[in-house]
Design a protein that fits this description.
Radius of gyration: 17 Å
Order of helices and strands: HHH
Largest sheet: none
Shape: elongated
Number of strands: 0
Length: 56
């Protein structure tokens, strides 16, 4: 079943703002983790924010 009214694509500016927001979330999480914790997160294939949420 096709969608008769496809949603418009987000603007490049909106996409760039979303990327910047998500990246800032990861940077904030990285600052709260030790190097050992970052290594564990990386080896488990987790984003730093996911590891931090799991840890808390």
């Amino acid at each position: 079943m096709s969608n008769r009214f496809p949603s418009p694509k987000p603007s490049r500016e909106a996409v760039n703002k979303e990327i910047a927001y998500r990246w800032s979330q990861e940077v904030t999480a990285m600052e709260k983790l030790t190097n050992d914790e970052l290594e564990v997160a990386y080896k488990q294939g987790m984003k730093p924010s996911e590891y931090l949420a799991y840890k808390e």
